[in-house]
């Protein structure tokens, strides 16, 4: 891989010596995901919720969201392989999508001519399976030959388990297994080409062992014509670790095979195959590594001391790959974080390294030249309060006039539709002020020149000029300044009466950055209140919604330390941060408890579940999606065991003492005035699973808490939707619920 996300910090739990007592769970019967009685309960709740929400306004809203998702004018993002540019596309006519390709000349035109390789809707119809396309891994061809073979990943229900099938992009057909084509059973795992007739496979299929987290525990070398059961095992990890991964780097002159023992979410051990033996890359398990040609990169998650020198957590270091494996420890610092700036990701072109940084949650991009002592140049492409990411077009293109040092820039902002720009990096003694041919030019300091020009722009889906983006800082309980973005109409009236939607995540070092959303624009910002005397709004004045994104601890906005600050026993800090933002919005007069709602999914669902139970006095409504909520049993449900490093191990009595304080399922109390609540999930979610959402809704309903609503999509995986129609319905229900609760008071 040449683009490497900056991963998160370690926090592993130990194996329990005694088990914490399990609280009474009257709803454990709902954990049978596909049980007849359980699904009958789901359908009953779905019908009740649909009766409430699916009125004429909802139908209009869902249609407007679907129009955004199905737009044929949105940017078709591509990946380059050889001379072709590949894209996966969904729209109204192709709800499950088309895998297709085109030439560069065609792609840059207003109406590209696409060659359709795989019609997933037609495949699903022919097979009688609701296939969801999860990507394709193309085999590097022999020099001078075109890319031809790919392993296509297809999920039968949108979950994480995939069936991998070999596909010929020239004939546009799957390779018949009877003729030797690879066809792997549906399972969790990964696949990498070793050569034209061999795959490296980590899989849970058949009798292959799996970890306690439900992922692959072993990897095999699979020859063409073999079945998985007969393939020799080449790598294995302990059952209590998270997953095994195998991959082959086919870069000419730098061919290497790697295996990763992913111990938990933030700890891993990488090994390289040498003379049929796995040789570990000798670093602490919380130091992330990346390889490009002769270079080995390191990103420590905690301060790392090597030969008497301490390197800060979140820094980026480089060493010669072969020299490091041989025992040398000469490290070069490529990036060092400060109080405002963090490394989010990096990407290699053939000769240069692109660093994607955040400075107080606004993007900054730097270009490093290893041939010039890693000279660093600023890429002038990042407006304030925007998210801009740079990554290589095709670092493996070695043609004399090829794209090896080309890069993509994807830029977006809350009120700025996304743009796609393509640029080229070259070495120069002097920086240039303008590019030839009238193209826009981002200049850098002497040493590296960037020429780049816009290729595509997304359409506008709402009147962005009517709105402004502001960044504010709230002060959390321990004095930490927490940034948040506010998107609202210009001239916003600060009378506490604006319907406000507060979104957050706060986990796994995931950063919430500015991003354009036609759905938020249409479903929230442009939606108008009715000016009814006595409803709390200024008489005769209608208004739209306010959208807020909180950059709380647990996320990655300020690097590993920002994440570590809210791990395990310190989880409460993420919730205190989010509550501080809510209070700041109220104290500034943006909104009030009755007009303030919060929304989050997955770990963000756990976040808003804690707003529901810990801070009910701050919110009028909560939209809680695909959530973790039962933190006593989360390690035993779906892939939950893999998150012990983030939350702790509830089987350990000392861990359960702090985990139970942020387990919403166990924090519900009688006599509390809870916000109106919508809990939504998906039956086929095999990552978090639907049962935590089911049990939370069932307990709240049994307690007689009013205005509790539940909906479970019967397909769609962890995203809750496998096509645009399902996504529009999911987003429409959440947005409509919040609007009815906060702006109309009728949910």
TrEMBL record:
Q: Where is the signal peptide?
A: none
- Specify whether Membrane is a keyword of the entry: no
Keyword annotations of the record: Hydrolase, Protease, Serine protease
What GO terms in the biological process aspect are recorded for it?
proteolysis
GO molecular function (one)? serine-type endopeptidase activity
Q: Where is the composition biased (Low complexity)?
A: 1-24
Q: Which GO terms describe its cellular component?
A: cytosol
- Region span, Disordered: 1-25
Q: Which residue intervals define the domain Peptidase S9 prolyl oligopeptidase catalytic in the entry?
A: 542-743
Q: Does the keyword Ligase apply?
A: no
* Ranges where the Peptidase S9A N-terminal domain occurs: 25-250
Query: Which InterPro entries does the record cross-reference, listed alphabetically?
Result: AB_hydrolase_fold, Pept_S9A_N, Peptidase_S9_cat, Peptidase_S9A, Prolyl_oligopep/macrocyclase
Protein name (Swiss-Prot/TrEMBL): Putative S9 family peptidase
Q: Which organism is it from?
A: Arthrobacter globiformis (strain ATCC 8010 / DSM 20124 / JCM 1332 / NBRC 12137 / NCIMB 8907 / NRRL B-2979 / 168)
